[in-house]
DNA sequence: GAGTGGTCTAGACCACGGT
DNA sequence: CCGTGGTCTAGACCACTCC
């Protein structure tokens, strides 16, 4: 039951844009008109427009107005969802798929120098080291290589790893996932990838490296998700 | 000579954060204290904090305060630059490298049905279809496959393509690049990739598909940048 | 010069976190 | 309960675009 004004304005404008109501002149109404229409302040209107801009629907030009970005059925797939992305779900952008998880390794280890340099965890702290293969429609499509800080995320078990670690962290531990920083790469397939993934003829993998932070600013996770080619898309928006 | 208050506050806070001045308690001072310190309004302070948050340096928690995200030398490479990314420069995140451009194809064609479905350009409009290989330190590392809407970006020549199309568009045509939407994929190498790129043993490429919009909201470009494995990183930030 | 978005101020109330 | 960030209002001036 959110009664936030800017959110209502944002939702209304978004619906109209997607329905093509403003496309005649490729412009949004000027701020003053939106203020009058919604009976709200300039702050609320501008915040709604900023949210539309963050999503890649509009672009504001000082002195001119708020421009609509061209969109077509083909370019819809470039649009950002702004949905929160937890774990491997982020890989299947909006696709509903059957998937199964195969826990191929589960250990609790102390961080040594080498692991510290990779994960940025402090030397000596205990971490869960987990490897899980994700089968999507029967295909071994992704291997997640997780390291969780055991002090910040205690009590993870193989059974939890098979279901959903993120569900456990959020619902049971009440851990808030504040920020995830990601790096995307393409790597030559290592032995682990070749033995665990259905690569077919391909000898490379995509590699999504994620480090995740809780709402106290502490990094609780380092994860590499290696995935097979030709199946996964990642969207990005750059605004000037 | 920008005299924008929030920008000054942002710069000052960023310097302090990176210098570790606030790391003792993992918190930024509360808004009221920053307002007093900078002698500015709450608006300016909050806008500065929002910019820090967009960069992945801090995270605001209602009722608690503004938390600093842990950062270490290893995780610095995950930080967002917020620099504008034009063309292939975006691939080499912050690396200074010698590179050379080899124009392997340059045509002006009309968009047919197949090309329209790929690029989202309207059937029948003229486009420049350009293929360029980027040699980085002598390695054929990237092939850019560009389609530019010739009505929006007239006058591109092979000579311009060899130097920098973006430089020409921005400086000569005064075209403003407002927004770039990207999709990142990993693809099996096609014949073009195998013949033009130094793939070595690898038989896959990274594929960065970009569609770019000018400040009137019109899509002027569709580009696929195919790049060799193991060399390029792409950063992303997800905020909840 | 008129119109428009960008920045800024001062002030208010609300919602959430922790004590 | 108090302290904090989130939302909102009303009003002002500036910088840019376009005629």
UniProtKB/TrEMBL annotation, chains A, B:
Keywords: DNA-binding, Transcription, Transcription regulation
PROSITE patterns: HTH_GNTR
Pfam families per the UniProt record, alphabetical: GntR (PF00392), UTRA (PF07702)
InterPro entries registered for this protein in UniProt: Bact_HTH_transcr_reg, Chorismate_lyase_/UTRA_dom_sf, Tscrpt_reg_HTH_GntR, UTRA, WH-like_DNA-bd_sf, WH_DNA-bd_sf
Any coiled-coil regions, as ranges: none
GO biological process, alphabetically ordered: negative regulation of DNA-templated transcription
The HTH gntR-type domain, residue ranges: 3-71
Domain of life: Bacteria
UniProt GO MF annotations: DNA binding; DNA-binding transcription factor activity
Record-linked PANTHER family: HTH-TYPE TRANSCRIPTIONAL REGULATOR GMUR (PTHR44846:SF5), MANNOSYL-D-GLYCERATE TRANSPORT/METABOLISM SYSTEM REPRESSOR MNGR-RELATED (PTHR44846)
The protein, known as: UTRA domain-containing protein
């Amino acid at each position: 039951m959110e009664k936030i004004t800017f959110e209502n304005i944002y939702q209304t404008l978004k619906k109209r844009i997607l329905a093509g109501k403003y496309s005649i002149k490729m412009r949004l109404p000027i701020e003053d008109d939106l203020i009058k229409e919604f009976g709200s302040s300039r702050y609320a209107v501008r915040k709604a427009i900023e949210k539309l801009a963050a999503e890649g629907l509009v672009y504001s030009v000082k002195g001119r107005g708020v421009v609509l970005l061209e969109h077509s059925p083909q370019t819809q797939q470039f649009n950002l969802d702004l949905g929160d992305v937890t774990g491997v779900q982020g890989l299947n952008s909006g696709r509903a798929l059957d998937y199964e998880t195969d826990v191929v390794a589960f250990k609790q280890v102390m961080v040594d120098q080498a692991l510290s340099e990779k994960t940025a965890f402090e030397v000596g702290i205990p971490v869960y080291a987990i490897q899980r293969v994700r089968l999507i429609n029967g295909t071994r499509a992704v291997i997640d290589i997780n390291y969780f800080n055991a002090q910040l995320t205690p009590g993870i078990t193989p059974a939890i790893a098979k279901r959903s670690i993120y569900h456990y962290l959020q619902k049971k531990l009440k851990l808030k996932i504040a920020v995830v920083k990601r790096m995307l790469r393409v790597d030559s397939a290592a032995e682990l990838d070749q033995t665990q993934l259905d690569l077919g003829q391909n000898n490379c993998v995509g590699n999504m490296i994620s480090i995740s932070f809780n709402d106290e600013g502490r990094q609780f996770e380092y994860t590499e998700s290696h995935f097979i080619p030709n199946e996964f898309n990642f969207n990005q928006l750059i605004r000037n």
